[in-house]
Specification:
There is one protein chain. The protein folds into 2 domains: 110 residues; 134 residues, Orthogonal Bundle (Transferase(Phosphotransferase), domain 1), CATH 1.10.510.10. It is an alpha+beta fold. It has 8 helices and 12 strands. Helix 2 packs across helix 3 and helix 6 crosses helix 8. Strands 1-2-6-7-5-4-3 form a 7-stranded antiparallel beta sheet, sandwiched between helices. It has a 3-stranded antiparallel beta sheet with strand order 8-10-11.
Length: 264
């Protein structure tokens, strides 16, 4: 079971029906004010709502109460993982929004939901949108190469830290300036499990799929190669990346077609 990360510089306190884990420097008044502020909704789905409150971001679980009670009580380790993963990444100098507080609502061992408060990154965009804007603005080849080299540097930091992000698409990597990159959506990040070839391939397919519409293989192949270990042969690796990316794209298009979204 994955318990809440609680180190000497963190403390826990009650806030109504919520149990808050936060650094000593974070007061109860701040957490209360942030949780009660409607803020600006950044993302709203049946399972999660993300909103900005000033210089902070709040990601809260949503859903029908019976479902939330079951999931958060019996799978508490999964819902605590983002908090632990964020601390792990920062301890290994891997950029991610700074975790401010983690809240679980419930009593007597029953958990009804949670919220994670992190820092807001002003002016940040996901790397898919950032790269698209660079290309549309006529970005020079050497500028695009430097962008990909800097991105590869931070992705390699992530893998060297002992963490595996199972959804490393461009939408889960943010940047403010195209030189430093922040990893988000850490709920499913695995720590200490090793970076298997299967996990590596999954990540490379996700990254290739994120950029291949904007960039040719003249840029994409060196980028993927820079994420490989010396044990991997790019001549064997890249054809498999391309094949699996095409399969991934077909599955997405089939799902969109089924949902009536294709061409929208």
């Amino acid at each position: 079971m994955v318990s809440l990360l609680c180190t000497p510089d963190l403390r826990q306190f009650r806030l109504g029906l919520g149990r808050v884990t936060a650094p000593e420097s974070i007061g109860e008044e701040l957490v209360r004010a942030v949780l009660s502020d409607l803020g600006e909704v950044l993302k709203d789905s049946p399972k999660t709502r993300v909103r900005r409150v000033g210089k902070l971001v709040v990601k809260e679980s949503r859903g029908l109460l019976p479902s939330r009670l079951a999931k958060h009580t019996f799978r508490k380790s999964r819902y605590r993982q983002a908090w632990r993963a964020a601390h792990h990444l920062l301890e290994h100098d891997v950029p991610t929004p700074k975790p401010i507080a983690f809240v679980e609502w419930g009593a007597m061992g029953i958990i009804a939901g949670n919220a994670m408060i992190t820092e807001y990154l002003p002016g940040a965009r996901n790397v898919e949108d950032f790269l698209r804007a660079m290309v549309q603005a006529g970005g020079a080849v050497d500028t695009l190469q430097q962008f990909l080299a800097d991105l590869a540097r931070d992705i390699n930091l992530l893998s060297l830290s002992g963490a595996y992000h199972p959804d490393l698409s461009g939408k889960n990597i943010f940047t403010q300036n195209g030189r430093k990159f922040y990893f988000i959506d850490l709920d499913a990040v695995e720590i200490g499990e090793g970076y298997s070839d299967e996990a590596r391939m999954r990540n490379h397919v996700q990254l290739y799929d994120s950029f291949c519409d904007e960039l040719s293989d003249h840029l994409m192949v060196p980028f993927i190669e820079s994420l490989l270990s010396p044990l991997h042969d790019p001549r064997v690796w890249m054809p498999e990346v391309r094949q699996k990316q095409r399969e991934r794209r077909r599955l997405v298009e089939m799902r969109w077609e089924k949902e009536g979204k294709l061409g929208v």
